[in-house]
Amino acid sequence: MASEAAKASTERPQFPKRAVITGGMPYGNKNLHFGHIGGVFVPADFFARFLRDRIGQENVIFVSGTDCYGSPIMEGYRKKVEEEGYEGTIVDYVQANHNLQKEALDAYGISLDIFAGSGLEPARPIHAKLSKEILERLYERGYLRKMSTRQFYDVKAGQFLNGRQVIGRCPVKGCKSEKAYADECDLGHQFDPEELIDPVSQLTGTKPELRPVDNWYFDLPAFRKDLEKLTDEWDKDPQVRPIVTKTVRESLVDPVIYIQQRFEDAFKAAEPKLPAHTVTPAEGNQQSFSVSFENWEDRDHAREILEEAGVRFRTGKTLLPFRLTGNISWGVPAPDLEDTKDLTVWVWPESLWAPISFVQTVLANAPEGRYSSTDWHDWWCADDAKVFQFIGQDNIYFYCVAQPAMWEALDWGLFQDTPVANYHILFMNKKASSSGKIKPPMAEELLDHYTPEQLRTHWLSLALDQKAVSFSPKPYDTSVSHKDKKTGEEILVKDDPRVVDPALKESAFLTNIFNRLVRSCFYGAANNCDGHLPEVAPEQEVVDAANEATLAFERACAVFDAHTALSVAEEYCRAANKRWGDESKAAKDDHDAYVQALANAFRALRTVTLLMHPATPFGCAKICEHLNFKPELFFSWDHAFDGVTELAEAQGETPEAHELVALPPRYDFFEKKPGQK
């Protein structure tokens, strides 16, 4: 039976021998909200679990960790000390938040090989060593530039301000960010501090001034051609989503300044002083004309001339030198280069190579034989390995522009990672963030209303690879459903028993259809096979349907399409359930016909459980346990096209001798929360 599916091997997607999956790095100043879990960690975990089943758990490393350093953590710690009287150190503060994050991830079954911390043991010294090596390597290869730039200084407080201690409006044309910091906005746009509109110090509420400081910058503009070539390759790669190449190309353009029409006369008066440039007139209803330059240095020189001439303008996206160091105290120490001392590594670049140091940490602490190789190069540099980075769309610039260029500059043989970028997961149709106006519910808080597997399947079904989608859990929906006809009182959606909870849409499949198939198999075997597997083989058309579903599921997983993969599993399970219902009823008192129907159902159950394992690991593990199979055998795709009979034989048993674990009456493998219908 399995051989028929094996014939399709030439048409099946190819997977690497080894794989690293990364799940981003949450800041160490807070616990995780639903967006962290549902938007990044659950999709990454789905793929990591699938790959472990597909290529072997010894060949997969899934890493993430707390982003311990940087201005968001310093600012959070400062406020906790000043406003709450917190007496712990900043390390204590980060460790406490790290522990809360780990608890939330564990509650949702996120199967990380390590959830580390860039500034916490055991990864801290390994990460610091790698950071030093990377900066020294980039300096030796001539890709670091020491630049004197201006940093915000609060005169009233008498100190330089870190990035999150300054808030203003984003200067990038077309940006709709609600909040911008010293050199980046909350939508990921990069700019120079002097471009920030209406800056305000978060320490004193005053307008800070700009003072010069020296820092090291990576020469990102030098890699424009490399990035253009990579983007062209990504265009042809079915694993890379269009949002990635679209976003990357927005930065692979000549530097541009946009000037409103009303400043045209002032611009023309200053134009002779400008470096070489090209003016593009406004078209149609456009209110601004554009001025493009050959490089960012010319653009910045033009900015100074235009500012002196009183011309107001906004800049467009382009490649700029990527800052690697800063002068805040809470950061990874940077090596002393030339005359610079006591600098720290800026949090964003060191978070880009943190997954490498986390993999190094995993391998350094792993039991002998746990992984197929203990050399990190075999995971990050080998031709038969791949790295899959699950990220949100806000972070594409860092992971898909800055990181590939740095990897190229290092010349360590690091291959370019495969970025898996998801769109925003909205909350009640609006973008929510911990620092924004709309606060999202915390991840663990949601578990008061839902089971982890209900939320996992719901979030995986949102198809965030295609567009931003809203998470609208009924218990949090305070919109008005209707008015009571008698009292005129407004009834909120969350209080209206007639309103179906959108977050439970996929749960009906788990708690009804899937549960029903499992129970039918076990209770049927208990009553007709003495608690053992059916002795007869499933019918060929049943085997063919199982194999077709398995191959379709594999194809969807290969391109990170969890939505389609789960649809395949659900559609197959519903069809199998219907077949069981029809055949079991038709069998009536015909024992042989009933056992044949049972054999068909067990074949379907084996396949559904294998396919649903990455999405619903807890329930599927219980099914495997009650089927009395070893998990490493049952969930291995080496046996993906084997039914329960072949699996029993692989364990050295015959079907009639393979005893199932008895099932209590009305046992649920996928439970509901109390009060759910």
Summary, kept brief:
By secondary structure, the protein is of the alpha/beta class. It is 41% helix and 15% strand.
Provide an overview of this structure.
By secondary structure, this protein is an alpha/beta fold. Helix content is 41%, strand content 15%. A 5-stranded parallel sheet has the order 3-2-1-17-18, sandwiched between helices. A 4-stranded antiparallel sheet has the order 5-4-8-13. The chain has a 4-stranded antiparallel sheet with strand order 10-11-9-12. Helix 5 packs across helix 10 (347-365) and helix 10 crosses helix 12. The mean pLDDT is 94.
Keywords for this entry:
five-stranded parallel β-sheet, 41% helix, 677 residues, four-stranded antiparallel β-sheet, 22 strands
List the helices and strands and how they pair.
Elements lengths: L1 H5 L11 E5 L11 H22 L4 E7 L4 H14 L5 H18 L6 E4 L6 H17 L3 E11 L4 E2 L5 E4 L27 E5 L7 E10 L5 H12 L6 H8 L6 E5 L3 H7 L6 E4 L7 E6 L2 H13 L4 E3 L6 E2 L1 E2 L5 E2 L10 E2 L1 H19 L11 H4 L4 E8 L3 H15 L7 E5 L2 E3 L15 H4 L5 H9 L8 E3 L8 E4 L6 E3 L14 H22 L11 H19 L3 H26 L3 H22 L4 H11 L3 H4 L9 H7 L27
Parallel strand pairs: 1-2, 1-17, 2-3, 17-18, 19-20
Antiparallel strand pairs: 4-5, 4-8, 6-7, 8-13, 9-11, 9-12, 10-11, 14-16, 15-16, 21-22
